[in-house]
Amino acid sequence: MAPKAKSQTPTPAATPVANKKQGKKSAGSKSKGSNVTGYIVALLFVGVFVGTLNYLPTQLPTVHELLEIGKRAENKPYTNFAEFYPFYKTQHSDSTCRLSHVVGTSLVTLTFVLAPGTLVAALLAGSLGMLLSPLLAGFQTGIAEGAILVLTFLLTTKSLTGKLWLGFFVLVAGYACAWYGHFFHEHNMPATFIYPTYSLLSDFKMFFNILTQAEPL
Fold first, then answer.
1. Exposed end of the chain (fewer CB within 10 Å): N or C?
2. CA separation (Å) from 44 to 36, 50, 139, 156?
3. Is the pLDDT of residue 1 over 60?
C-alpha cells in the first residue's frame, strides 16, 4: 500500500488584533527613534546657537549694522546682545522678580528636556529673531518681531511634536512668571515689549548665571 500523505494544517491568517499589535510595536519603535533623533538635533542646535551668540556680538558687530534698514528707533539704542545685557540686568534688580524668572525658565527648561522638539523650535525662533532684530530696528516696539517669533515657535512645535499645546504651555509658563515679577515686584515694563529676542536670550543667560552663582539671586 502506498503511504498516506500527511495532511498539512493551513497557517491561520493574521488576525486584525495581531495586526494592530504589530502596528503599535512598529509605531513605538519609530517614536523611540524619532525621540533620539530629536535629542541629537537639539544638541547640535544648542552648540551652534550658543557658539553664534558668543561670537557675533564681539567679532562681527558689523553684521547688525549691515542688516539695519532705515533709521534706528530712538528707544532702541542697543545694536547687539553684548550691549543689551547690562541694561537687562538693571531691569531685574528686585530679587523676587529674578526668582519669578528662574521659576518660569525652570518650567520651560523642563519642557525642553521632556519634549526636545520644543527646544529645537525655540532655537529656530531665537535664531530667526537674531536676524530680524536689526531689520526691525526702526520700529519703536517689538510687536512685529515678537509676533514672528511666537508664530515660528508654535508652528515648529506643532510640526515636530504634533502637540500645539506644548508650545502654548512654554509661552504661558515662561512669560506669566516673568511678567508677574515685573508688574508686582520690579514695577517696570518688561523689556521684551521692545527687544523680544534679546530679552529672551538674556533671560536664559541670567538663569544660567544664577544657577552657577555668577550672578546673585
1. N
2. 13, 10, 33, 17
3. no
Dihedral (CA of 164, 166, 167, 171) sign: positive
Q: How many CA atoms lie within 13 A of 145 on its CB side?
A: 27
Distance between CA atoms of 69 and 59, rounded to whole angstroms? 21
For cell 529673531, the residue is 129
Place of cell 545694536: 79
Higher per-residue pLDDT: 186 or 43: 186
Give the pLDDT confidence score for residue 59 in this predicted structure: 46
The set of cell numbers assigned to 15 is 488576525
Q: Which three cell numbers stand for residue 186?
A: 520690579
User: What does DSSP assign to residue 14?
Assistant: P
**Owner of C-alpha cell 561670537:** 55
What span, in angstroms and rounded, lies between the C-alpha atoms of 151 and 163?
14
Are 167 and 157 spatial neighbours (Cβ–Cβ below 8 Å)? yes
Q: Which three cell numbers stand for residue 75?
A: 528707544
Q: Are the CB atoms for 54 and 68 separated by under 8 Å?
A: no
Rounded Cα gap, residues 203 and 151, in angstroms: 20
* Measured distance CA(108)–CA(35) in Å, rounded: 18
215: which 3 cell numbers?
550672578
